[in-house]
Design goal:
Blueprint lengths: L1 E9 L5 H9 L17 E6 L3 E7 L9 H16 L2 E7 L6 H11 L3 E7 L6 H11 L5 E5 L8 H9 L3 E2 L14 H16 L9 E9 L5 E9 L4 H6 L4 H18 L3 E9 L7 H6 L7
Parallel strand pairs: 1-3, 1-4, 4-5, 5-6, 9-10
Antiparallel strand pairs: 1-7, 2-3, 8-9
Length: 293
């Protein structure tokens, strides 16, 4: 039996969440074109007949000063430190940045490091090969060109990752694909749909708190949630004219939640203004953005 914990790291919008979902075969991390969508470490479990890879999706590495930004940075750091290896995702359609090169040089010196050169389906091939050339100068890393969106060359990536595993145990049951509870997944799904329908300046200022999550005797799952925003001016935008935007968010979230719980869902959303919530320790605690000891 081979097993190991692999931290998925990279800059915002590199495609980490799309990749972990593709590798695991289930939706364990929400996806958006907006950077810094992921805020927590998300565990995705890949089970094979004789191996188990526990992937840890992480927030995109970025600089920020709010308590929330610091929490996200801590999540990245702890994922790296607690893992057996690193899978670093790079957007091949963009220039290779100096920070990634420096990070990989340091990381590869201490632990198994694999680079997934992602978005090869849209990248200029000559441009991408130049990135490969620069990455190849770093010792002790494996480079695998892929497309997480198109699920291209993922078998090769898994093969390379399996070679980094060590003799071990199956850390999670074979039928388990994430360690996150349904309440967490529900909040993330609502936030994902909000990211889809809201204006660019609002999404990073919203959080979602699940106030109620009950399964009735009739088998219907009843969920109530607060969509939290930072400014009074954001509230009418989230609600939309005649409640249209909030309804779009609710309908889209409900459909996915019904797939998640495999049953009927009644979802009710409210919009609450909590100014400066990203720097409010009590609110961050309520939303689950607290450092775990």
């Amino acid at each position: 039996m081979k097993s190991g914990f692999i931290a998925i790291l990279g800059l915002p919008n590199a495609g980490k969440s799309t990749l972990i979902n593709a590798l695991v075969g289930e939706k364990v991390s929400i996806v958006s074109w907006r950077p810094q969508t992921t805020r927590d470490k998300i565990v995705g479990i890949m089970n094979g007949e004789d191996y188990q890879i526990v992937f840890i999706d992480t927030p995109g590495m970025h600089a920020g000063t709010s308590r929330l930004s610091k929490y996200m940075a801590d999540e990245v750091s702890s994922a790296k430190n607690d893992s057996d290896g690193v899978l670093y995702v790079i957007d091949a359609s963009k220039p290779l940045d100096k920070d990634s090169l420096e990070f990989l040089e340091k990381t590869a010196a201490t632990r198994s490091t694999v680079v997934a050169l992602n978005k090869m389906d849209i990248a200029d091939k000559a441009f991408a090969m130049e990135s490969v050339k620069r990455l190849s100068a770093i010792k002790n890393i494996e480079i695998v060109p892929i497309s997480a969106e198109k699920k291209e060359n993922l078998d090769e990536l898994v093969s390379v990752l399996r070679a980094t595993l060590k003799d071990g145990v199956r850390y999670y049951p074979e039928d388990m694909y994430t360690d996150k509870p349904l309440r967490f997944m529900a909040a993330e799904i609502v936030r994902e749909k909000a990211l889809k329908f809201l204006l660019a300046e609002i999404p990073h200022g919203i959080g979602v708190e699940i106030k109620k999550f009950d399964v009735g005797e009739d088998g219907i799952t009843r969920i109530e949630a607060d969509v939290i925003c930072e400014k009074e001016t954001h509230k009418p935008i989230i609600i939309g004219k005649g409640g249209e935007t909030l309804k779009k968010i609710s309908v889209a979230a409900r459909k996915e939640l019904e797939t998640l719980v495999d049953g009927q869902v009644f979802l009710r959303l409210y919009v609450k203004v909590k100014s400066g919530w990203k720097d409010n320790a009590a609110i961050l605690d309520l939303l689950g953005y607290v450092k775990k000891e």
